[in-house]
Write a structure and sequence with these properties.
single chain; alpha+beta; three-stranded antiparallel beta sheet; about 30% helix; about 25% strand
């Protein structure tokens, strides 16, 4: 008895291309772990394991911005869909060296390490969610 594939388990030929992988963040974390070996070997090991985990995730996780949602794939399997209609805001943290992607939906918030091209990510966000780019909590104004 064989298991049948899950519906929408793999991208179709009409699916937009996935964002390009970026190995920068995992390699930087691994590089940071090296000098800490002399100071704190256990801390160095933990940092290196985090870098290795992110390196693995970079090879298997893909983001695809289709016409209705951000779709997260692991290899060829859809992990989750995030419909644009549920998004309230988004941000890429630390613009000079992007390390974290944040977005808020109606019922939850999400943080993703930048394991894909930040330039492509920003382009897709501006294309599909341009009206949310500047969404932020209301600024407080001084009272007279």
């Amino acid at each position: 008895m064989s298991a049948s594939p899950a519906p929408n388990a793999s991208p179709t030929p009409s699916t937009p291309p996935a964002l390009s992988a970026s190995y920068r963040l995992p390699w930087v974390i691994i590089a940071i772990s090296l000098p800490t070996i002399l100071l704190q070997p256990w801390v160095s090991l933990i940092i290196a394991l985090l870098g290795a985990f992110l390196l693995f995730q970079t090879t298997v996780i893909r983001l695809v911005f289709d016409t209705e949602a951000l779709v997260v794939y692991r290899n060829q399997t859809v992990l989750r869909r995030f419909p644009y209609q549920d998004w309230q805001s988004w941000s890429i943290f630390w613009a000079p060296v992007p390390i974290l992607f944040y977005f808020r939906e109606v019922k939850s918030i999400h943080f993703l390490p930048i394991l894909f091209s930040p330039r492509e990510l920003r382009q897709q966000l501006e294309t599909h969610l341009a009206d949310l780019e500047k969404a932020a909590p209301a600024a407080t104004t001084p009272q007279p």
